[in-house]
Design goal:
66 residues; globular
């Protein structure tokens, strides 16, 4: 599980799943490549780049290998 800023920084470039406390446009879960963790958590999803604050994230973890 990713919970602290240093966890996110260490996992840049990896595929992660982020669950939010509050939905954005009706969606609470996002999966994508972790691009940055400097000024918020930035992931590249299939629909584009999304940025979240640590306070918005209820859970985050590496995606299972498929």
């Amino acid at each position: 599980e990713l919970s602290r800023p240093e966890h996110f920084i260490k996992m840049q470039g990896e595929k992660i799943k982020v669950k939010l406390y509050k939905a954005i446009d009706g969606v609470k879960e996002f999966t994508g490549i972790l691009k940055s963790a400097e000024d918020g958590v930035v992931i590249e999803t299939e629909t584009g780049e999304m940025t979240f604050t640590l306070k918005e994230i209820s859970k985050a973890h590496l995606c299972d290998f498929e």
